[in-house]
Write a structure and sequence with these properties.
By secondary structure, the chain is an alpha/beta fold. It has a single domain, classed as Aldolase class I (TIM Barrel), CATH 3.20.20. The chain is built from twelve helices and nine strands. Strands 2-1-9-8-7-6-5-4-3 form a nine-stranded parallel β-sheet. The longest helix has 17 residues. It binds 3-hydroxy-3-methylglutaryl-coenzyme A and magnesium ion. Magnesium ion binds next to loops.
Length: 304
Amino acid sequence: MSTPSSVKIVEVGPRDGLQNEKAQVPTDVKVELIKKLVDAGLSVIEAGSFVSPKWVPQMADTRDVFQQSARISNVCFPVLVPNLKGLEAAKEAGAKEVAGFAAASETFSQKNTNCSIKESLERQLRVCEEAIRSGLRVRGYISVVLGCPYEGDVNPQVVADVAEQLYQMGCYEISLGDTVGVGTPQRTKDLFEHVMKVVPVEHLGGHFHDTYGQAIGNIFGALEMGISIFDSSIAGLGGCPYSPGATGNVATEDVLYMLNGMGIKTGVDMNKLLVAAGYICDHLGRSTYSRAGRALLSKQRQAA
Ligand code: HMG
Ligand code: MG
């Protein structure tokens, strides 16, 4: 398997990055962040989620965030939907792409979506059928692919079975989520090897949280397997409300730093990414979780 020459980065900061923030981030801050991410050259930016606001209050303004963002550019802004109600809201807002989500462990499925894996796939099937009929594209996520916070190890065959079903329903891309951030590079490679038997490699992506500092290594492992789609979050923000102890997503700046170093094209500008990171970190009142971001900023300060 050869390493890809270009990679699509799916920026999930405005959704995964912010969904777990306790203090409500104002809509105009989210929109300004998205503007800065667009300016940095990101072509896919997850704008939010149409989930129950009782479950995830931070995402309650997704309609406004999406509509104000969609106005500023032609970038693709997928939104998360767990069911037909979410899909209807996404359609009304004018979304062109939605992302559904399922899990590879029963307990996580119950905690995150209040239903079993089988039920969530049934919901997902209805979402796919209706979305595709309405001309929307559907991305599919699978959570806890390398370990579950409640059940521990996850069998890669279960991940492959769920991925195959999502693909057959019409999901054009399936992102494998290490929600807990427990994966290691070799296990990541083994997982993709399983899943690639049932879903073509070009339709698979990786979504790594960085709890154990393994996310960049996992991406490197996945690149070696030919994976060319990676989700990441500006400044390494993020976490799932139903994955206790898990930290943020891999930082977009760290992913870009590695890809630039490997000569892999992304179309993303590091300096502008640092501006976006600075903006949201200033708002949240904390420093970036990105190692590359921190190092580059300190270099910039020394040079000034
Ligand atoms: P439920 O309580 O079983 O749903 O939740 P329900 O159908 O019984 O409805 C209960 C209430 O929710 C009703 O309102 C519905 O109208 C409302 P009420 O009558 O009580 O006022 N409702 C909705 N409202 C807005 N939008 C909707 C919606 N659906 C129902 N779409 C449900 C089931 C799936 C809705 C709930 O469990 C939920 O919203 N879960 C979302 C959890 C979530 O957002 N988790 C984080 C995203 S996934 C993630 O982060 C992982 C990922 O990053 C990859 C990785 O890292 O692994 C993608
Ligand atoms: Mg996530």
